[in-house]
Amino acid sequence: MTTKNNRENIFSQLRKDLVSGTWVLFSTKRNQRPDCFKNRERKNEKEKNEKDCLFCKENISNQEEDTLVYTKKDNDWSLKVFPNKFPALSSEYKDINKREYGPFEVIDGIGYHEVLVTEDHNLDMAELEVIQIAEILDAYQDRYVSLMNRKHIKYISIFKNYGYDAGASIRHPHSQIVAMPIIDPDVFRSINGSEEYFRVHTECVHCVMIGWEKESGKRMIFENEDFIVVCPFVSRVSFEMRVYPKRHLSYFERITDVQKIKLAEAMKFCLSKLKKNLNDASYNMFLHTSPCDGKTYDHYHWHFEIFPKTNTWAGLELSTGIEICAILPERAAEILRK
């Protein structure tokens, strides 16, 4: 039987900041990962071939409790999703155990943490065919819909870390899906800003930005019938990119099959340009979409953000929160379009 004391040791914790109102996740299970706290300079020691890789077929096919598997004509798998072995959040218990420590609010880190793996050890998203990227997007949607209505889940974060500098501890191409009992603080700020703009101007702030970028053309990288890729006018890092649906859409989970193909085209183009023009730079890619907490967010506009690891936070950034970007987005877009 689990007591309160050993439950404290088992669970990750979410602690609420009294000043900002945002949450910080403390996850002790994550420090059990093989690379945890080791010298970050070991990046060249990553798994270089399939026999050493934890996510390649011979090492993973019969070991994981799969939640989703896509198969090919030969019945071999092309993509699979399974629970993260070292989860940031735990699905072991079903209540958040809200409590107070002095003036602070604490809840247990209840949720779901899954990994999405594609079959080829050496082909990242930039090198896949458009239809293969669309399959990844389809899996994102499938798992989102499966997790969004579960008890206590308010937001689902879908993200990809590419390269050791971006936090990818395993070389094999993969993404992660985290369903959590809070709204992502970055999304929370984005939603609040969008809501305030809509209240004042009665239109979507992202639609306004998209219209202006299309008219200007200076920061556009790619456009098809349904999606546009831009380097934002206020980029937070050099060569930052955002992938927007051109039509106002608030909920990623409602994406259609046709839209998946068009989004896959956009991702293929911009990630290929990043790989070629920035010497295969590490990056973080993540989805910003409306929360799944039962409220209405029709003012919001979902999108993907891509952050190459081109900036390092130092004293000014940490002390002020003001990010320093070394290249204008107009110039970044010009380079990426080449």
Topology overview:
Layout (H helix, E strand, L loop, with lengths): L3 H7 L2 E4 L6 E4 L30 H4 L7 E4 L5 E7 L15 E3 L2 E5 L3 E7 L11 H18 L7 E8 L11 E7 L4 H17 L3 H12 L3 E4 L3 E4 L10 E5 L11 H21 L5 E6 L14 E6 L6 H6 L8 H9 L1
Antiparallel strand pairs: 1-2, 1-6, 3-4, 4-7, 5-6, 7-9, 8-9, 8-13, 10-11, 11-12, 12-14, 13-14
Helix pairs in contact: 3-6
Task: Describe what is shown at a glance.
By secondary structure, the chain is of the alpha+beta class. It has helices spanning 4-10, 57-60, 130-147, 185-201, 205-216, 257-277, 315-320, 329-337, and strands spanning 13-16, 23-26, 68-71, 77-83, 99-101, 104-108, 112-118, 155-162, 174-180, 220-223, 227-230, 241-245, 283-288, 303-308.
- Strand-and-helix sequence, N→C? HEEHEEEEEHEEHHEEEHEEHH
Amino- and carboxy-terminal Cα gap: 61 Å
Q: Describe the sheet with the most strands.
A: 10 strands, antiparallel
Number of beta-strand segments = 14
CATH topology of the largest domain: HIT family, subunit A
The fourth-level CATH homologous superfamily of the largest domain is: HIT-like
Structure annotation, total helices: 8
Oligomer: single chain
Summed over residues and divided by their number, the pLDDT gives a mean of 88
What structural category do the secondary elements indicate?
Answer: alpha+beta
Across the major sheet, the strand order is: 3-4-7-9-8-13-14-12-11-10
Percent of sequence in beta strands: 15-25%
Class of the largest domain in CATH? Answer: Alpha Beta
Uncertain residue segments: 36-47
Number of domains: 2
Question: Mind telling me the C-alpha Rg?
Answer: 20 Å
CATH architecture tag of the largest domain: 2-Layer Sandwich
* Helical content band: 25-40%
Shape: globular
